[in-house]
Structures are given as C-alpha cells and as structure tokens.
Amino acid sequence: MRAWSPWERRLCFAAPFCMRLLLAGARAARLGGGDPHAILHVFLQDAVSLGGGVIGALHIPEKWFPGAVDRCLNSHNIMHVLVVLAVYSMHQVTTKDLAWMSRVDCRAPLRQL
User: Fold this and answer.
1) 41 a known binding residue?
2) DSSP alpha helix (H) spans, the chain
3) Nearest residue to 47 (alpha-carbon basis) of 93, 94, 89
4) Binding of Zn(2+): at which residues (predicted)?
C-alpha cells in the first residue's frame, strides 16, 4: 500500500489493528485459545499502542506548548515510550500463554474414521 500523505500512512495501520481487535474479541469470547487470565494484557497491548498512535497523529504536546517540547516529551517520544509499554503487555501475554500451554493439553481430539 502506498501512502501519499501522513493520514494515508496512518491508515495503513487500520487493517492490522482491526484484525488484532477481531482476534482479541474471539479470544475474549473463548473462541480462541490462551490463558484466560491474560485477556487484560491482550487488550492493553493494542489500547496502549492506539493511544500512542493518536498522540503521535495529533501532535498533542506540541500544540499546547509550541517550541517547549522539541527535544523531549514531544509526541514522537511519547509514542515510543507507549510502544515499549505495549511490548511489555505483549510479553506478559506470551509468558502467560506459554505457561498455560504447558499445563493444558492443546491438542484437538482426533476423529475416528
């Protein structure tokens, strides 16, 4: 996909985000596998990333404090900090799911022909 404007570039993330939201919904509805106690982190990893994207797209601090946050605490820096927090939630989901898989038999029963 080619993006000719900043908003088109941001919209490139819409399809993957919608797919992740659909899969998180399936997991919450128990249609997908994984540790049921990890569902908070499943939603947090996307919510925090979305928040970072919104802050980056709207240039929040720069609009309120023009010229004062050029070096630190600008929207781009805040977005990167939020991405690291989202990766932490992703790590939590992964470790909980791996522990869950070691406790639960994940194999589907084979059908007899």
Assistant:
1) no
2) 6-11, 14-28, 39-58, 60-64, 75-103
3) 89
4) 76, 80
Who contacts 76 (Cβ-Cβ below 8 Å, separation ≥6)? 56
- pTM for this model (two decimals): 0.73
Asked whether residue 59 is marked as a ligand-binding residue, the answer is no
Token duo for residue 61: 């601090």
CB 52 within 8 A of CB 78: yes
Query: Do residues 15 and 56 make contact, with C-beta atoms less than 8 angstroms apart?
Result: no
Q: Report how far residue 34's alpha carbon sits from residue 32's, in angstroms, rounded to the nearest whole number.
A: 7
Q: Say which amino acid occupies 16.
A: P
Q: Which residue has the higher pLDDT, 14 or 6?
A: 14
- In the structure encoding, which two tokens stand for residue 90, read together? 């992703």
Contact, 34 vs 93, CB < 8 A? yes
**The token pair that represents 72 in the structure block:** 């630190």
Q: How far is 14 from 53, CA to CA, in rounded Å? A: 11
Residue-wise pLDDT for 51-67, tens only, equals: 988 888 888 888 888 88
